[in-house]
Amino acid sequence: EPEVTQTPSHQVTQMGQEVILRCVPISNHLYFYWYRQILGQKVEFLVSFYNNEISEKSEIFDDQFSVERPDGSNFTLKIRSTKLEDSAMYFCASSTQKTGGQKKLFFGSGTQLSVL
Amino acid sequence: AQKVTQAQTEISVVEKEDVTLDCVYETRDTTYYLFWYKQPPSGELVFLIRRNSFDEQNEISGRYSWNFQKSTSSFNFTITASQVVDSAVYFCALSASSGGSNYKLTFGKGTLLTVNP
Q: Does residue A90 have a pLDDT over 50?
């Protein structure tokens, strides 16, 4: 079965540094998402992306965050100046559904970000 | 706004016991979708099932079964004859289209299931 690939699996960074989390969605998918999960807490929606623009974003997704689909295969999440509270597991997801998120989301295995 | 409540934080059972994970949801939409995901210790999110709000037929898939009841806004998940490999965190999630927000899943806090040998 095709899968969403995320790299790296673990990322350690210093507070204030920029990080880029990378994702390769499933090739024929049209909708892309980032979610995060702070240790021991629930999975939270960050942003959805369709047709090369953000469809929706949550309150968490402030000016420090940005997403990009630079080359038609990768989907990246950039955090400009990391804070301690950005430490979390970040999940990328994609889906085929043209009308929204009701179809099954395929999740990647996550990138564990640790901000020191 | 959508909300998903999983009242059980942790459940511990002995292998071969049946276990039911509860999920209660809130939405004002008449069209919505409910999901269950499994997160094993390795961390990935594994899709288990999706139901739409118009289909209240309960479903059985192997040892898994789901009981969707709109009257009580519940979507409970039962594992029959549990196995150690079922140990994981299980998340219930809701996707609804109110206000155009039909792109995202709202997750519950998850239930940690531990199946002991």
A: yes
For residues A74 and A97, the answer to whether their CB atoms sit within 8 Å is no
Pairwise CA distance, residues A66 & A75, whole Å: 11
Q: What is the pLDDT of residues B44-95, one digit of tens each?
A: 888 898 888 887 777 778 899 999 999 999 999 999 999 999 999 999 999 8
Q: Out of A31, A43, A104, name the one closest to residue B103 (CB).
A: A31
The reply to whether residue A33 touches residue B50, judged by beta carbons under 8 angstroms, is: no
Q: With an 8 Å Cβ cutoff, are B47 and A44 in contact?
A: no
What amino acid is encoded at B96 in this protein?
A: A
Locate A4 and state its tokens. Answer: 């969403």
CB contact under 8 A, B45 and A43: yes
Could you give the count of Cα atoms lying within 13 Å of B49 in the half-sphere of its Cβ?
Answer: 22
